[in-house]
Amino acid sequence: MIEEIQAKAEYCLNCKMKPCQNACPLGNDTAGFIKLVKEDKIKEAYELLLETTVLQPVCSRICPHDKQCQGSCVRGIKQVPVSIGDMEAYVGDMAIEKGWKINKKSESKDKKIAVIGGGPTGLTCSAVLARNGYKVTIYEKHNALGGIMNHGIPAFRLDKKLLQKTIDKILELGVEVKLNKALGQDYTLEELFKEYDAVYLGFGANISSKMGIEGENLEGVLGGNELLENASHPDYTGKTVIVSGGGNVAMDTSRTVKRLGAKKVIVVYRRSRAEMPAEKKEIEEAMEEGVEFLFQNNIIKICGDKKVEKIECIKTKLVQKEGETRLSPVNIEGSNFFLLADYVIMAVGSKPEENLLAKLNLELDKKGRIKIDENNMTSQKGVFAGGDLAGTKATVAWASRSGRDAGNAIIKYLEKN
User: Considering the entire predicted model, what is its pTM?
Assistant: First the structure.
């Protein structure tokens, strides 16, 4: 294995400009850790990655590398890009196998922080704070940590035992965990402030968005985020399922539904395949598993008496609109057609739980997400927020970056207060 990994490392040109690092949401020193892998200094490579990420085994497997680090690799211009994800996975896995710990940077301090949400942003924020000697307690509404990594990404994409080992390394820093504790139900923000010096809100935005079309309230219209998070699927055996969307949630949902026995799964996406935000590998694997795709089509109506019976679609064309750099899909008049369906799954984006946000009494932005300043602080002093709850791009890497930035901001705040 090491010979194969080192061969991949030798393929790297060690560019001075490091375009791969610039394209990484976490800013990992890609060329630096690959150089150490070349020299068989795997522990040193792990320690270098720790400066920017504590989720190496996870991000290395689920990040859309073709749109980030590997997509910017100079080698990829005329040849295949460097296999950055494979090397990061090797380093992260080796750290688990060898028992290499996440090193602490500071002695213990008497400040306490509550982190709400045990997903990638909450875990990363907790790691940053704990490494610097702060006492951290994670409050998680589920019976296990991991957030979207555990309750959203299917096991066929991310091994849950590997995920747990990654989480355990963070908890070894002395992070306390309180499971089955939901904000707004089991405790309030005001109660936390009586016990903690700062609070980080990182519980995500996992309520599926709707398209605003007729028929969305019919029985059989489901949310992709909720299906993945709660694993509460209906019986799809022999059924036709339509999935609306083109991101990784749409891919994860369609593949899960197909594996659960659906006769036919059709992904309807209003743009072209090249513009799908989902990882290229995920699209290809979905196709291999029998998921069908209708590109440049838009669902305009869900039809049925009380439950879903069919959908009405319309074909789209991509046009360049003034002032926009990306082509926009426009419906082609008169191209309407119908597809029979038993279920329609919405995977067109997500939003925070509005009732919960209302209880927090924090200022929101125009999109209904928690408004934060350049230091990740909300409108209430001492309360910080990050991840897609605060408008960060909805990927594990961006959520982790947000948690890291917030952790460092909280440290600066506590040093002054």
Answer: 0.92
